[in-house]
Amino acid sequence: MTDFISVETRGNVTTTWLWNYGIDDPLPRPEQEEYLRRDILMTILASDGPIGVIGHASRSGTESHNLELSRKRADAVADIIMSLGIDPNRINPIAYGESKHAPDGTEDDKDRGVRIITISAISDAPKPETLYPVSLPRPSNAEMYRLIEREPVASQIHMQEMIWVYMPDLLNVLGPTSGGVSPMVDVGTSGYGLKGLLESKRPNDPERFAEDENTVLDRVWERFSYQLETEGLAWSEDYVIIHNDGQPLRDPFH
User: Fold this and answer.
1) Mind listing the pLDDT tens digit for each residue in 75-95?
2) Sign of CA dihedral 63, 69, 73, 75
3) What range does the domain containing 97 cover?
4) Is the overall model pTM greater than 0.70, yes or no?
């Protein structure tokens, strides 16, 4: 690793930081491009979700100039990654300009660069577009959190769905969230469209939180209900878990 490349892995999130670009230079340094072409492919192949390519710029110059420069930096790195044979639909170039500084420094040279953020594959987390039949309408949000608390399978599904829906905050792109919006506020907010939401939404947006929270809980209900069916169980009309022969087992809501 050179002085101009940093890699940090936290859990299943890997951030590759290419920093100290030349002033007003939209292209990575030769050693950074070499690293991209030679070494980053294994990191990308270990992931199966969106790849955030975040362009940054220093605070010198106008804000509009720096935003455009950071966009060119992100696009240039995205082009290199695509040239490696990675599906372009996974790659999300995002321009931050001078609005987001390097997370571990304040010097302008560390603000000139690009971050590449990936999340490693989760073997049993289905894609968001996978749908399951639902036998009963979903209970209220408060009841869903009781289900998640009391049923380990529902809790596991809940964490997987938050990784899908709340990925940008988990990837440390948006930064810390503000409190008091919903039980998920400490995780953040996003959606399946990584690029658009990162550019237009913020984690303290109550409308965005309500939409994403409902998306997550809808998916937990769909998947948990489906899991019950695979085990020969079902919901009764009054939301008690029963054997498919009608014998009641437990009431996870009370």
Assistant:
1) 999 999 999 888 888 888 888
2) positive
3) 5-119
4) no
